[in-house]
Amino acid sequence: MSYESPHASSSQPQRRPPYRSQYQPPQDPDFLLPWQRSAAAAPPRWPSPPVTPVPAPGHHGDLRRLRAAYRVLRRGATLTALGFFTLFLLLSGFAPGLMTRPLGSGLTIGLALGLCQLPVTLLAIALYERTARRAVDPLAAELRRTGAAR
């Protein structure tokens, strides 16, 4: 007994159409395939509110003064602490005779300069705080006060 498909009406085997031809996109011109992009949206019909230009923050005079004061603050503290340390390193590398001279009771100039690192760092911190209180903080407070009033 041979098995025959109930759908096979002829002796030739039925062929399936290729995969690409199975999918036919709709004939609607507005239909988009997944890889196609839609057209750009039309601009709104109502007029947009007028935009008042706001000056960039970096061009405001008070902010420039605050930035300059903060720059002086940073440079003063950095040059105090790092300048002393750089001087100590340069003297250690290029003037070992000077750094090994005794000051008295077993203390050399190099060791004394090394021990002065902590007081010089504390001096840089004090300079930073004093300059901030006298120059930077009043400018920042004035900007906060005028900014809150607007």
Automatic annotation (TrEMBL):
Residues 44-56 have a biased composition (Pro residues). Residues 1-60 are annotated as: Disordered. The chain crosses the membrane at residues 72-95, 107-128. The keyword Ribonucleoprotein does not apply. Keywords: Membrane, Transmembrane, Transmembrane helix. It comes from the Bacteria. It holds the Pfam family DUF485. Residues 9-25, 34-43 have a biased composition (Low complexity). InterPro entries: DUF485. This is DUF485 domain-containing protein. It comes from Streptomyces yanii. The lineage of its organism: Bacteria, Bacillati, Actinomycetota, Actinomycetes, Kitasatosporales.
